[in-house]
Amino acid sequence: MALEFTVRDDQQYTDQARLDEIFANPGFGDHFTDHMAVATWTKEKDWHDAGVVRYGSLASDPASAVFHYAQEIFEGLKAYRRADGSVWLFRPEANGERLRNSAARLALPQLPVEDFVAGVRALVEVDQRWVPGGAEQSLYLRPFTIANENFLGVRAAHTATFCVIASPVGAYFKGGVSAVDIWVSLDSSRAGAGGTGAAKCGGNYAASLQATNEAYAHGCSQVLFLDATDRSHIDELGGMNFFVITRDGQLVTPELTGNILPGITRDSILTMAPDIGFTPVERRITLQEVLDGIADGSIVEAFACGTAAVVTPIASLTVRDQVHRLPEVAESQSLDIRQRLVDIQYGRAEDPYGWTHKVC
Fold this sequence. Notes:
29% strand, globular, branched-chain amino acid biosynthesis, Aminotrans_IV_CS, pyridoxal phosphate, EC 2.6.1.42
């Protein structure tokens, strides 16, 4: 039976003056809406006790399995306010399917996709006032599942909690989108063969932080990881997928080997590619191939993509002490791709793919 996220009676609402103050400078993940959607899973009763409740602390015992064995997964998607005031989601079912795949890898209960979407929609409906309407503002949604059994034995937990929280966010790039410098990590790995690289779990992000700090120390904004097996093939950035654009119109990204997160933005770009004049290519790419392509001009642009920034042009790749700079272009194809996708998300362009879903 499908879950029904009923709205509990003890609701509270932030006044409009405070919302206006937040919307003036929302940041990213700094403020949270009045409510959250929750559901419980137990081995005996499956998923149950779903509802929309006041935003607040989750009750977790110090012995809860999530603290000791890192059984947790999460998602990231957005709700968008359109010019007519309506609120829409972008491909929520794809996020729900990815959460199921992550759950299977982390031995967590798999929430049905329809229940995932129902939880997201229920929260957005209740907290629709929190969806900002400024330029490239949106409501960032963070669904997650954690093991929540008080037990120190090493096994999959028999109790779990699903929760959706939300945070209004501003434009990722203040003052306009700008290209970023990337540090290529030759020593650290984000994930290895047979590991959790294709799952969206906190451990993958924790594993990227040391190398990200190394990138900052070298004046770069993000880190690019190589395959842990041979240290020669490109995987992805710490939190985004990687693309290059070739001189002959190919849009090339590393194929999904099990080490790479199957990004929703990545998939959307590959789907759109033929309609906007590109040949989409998924295959293994070596770092040396990219560096050679930058040097001989066969690679004309590179970019990273993900939910938060959508598309981020890459200005350079730094390998050890060598900076490999992409050519400056008068008309960025990366930004054209970004604009096409953002226009669909905000309803400024036709959605021929059926990706957008009206909430309210």
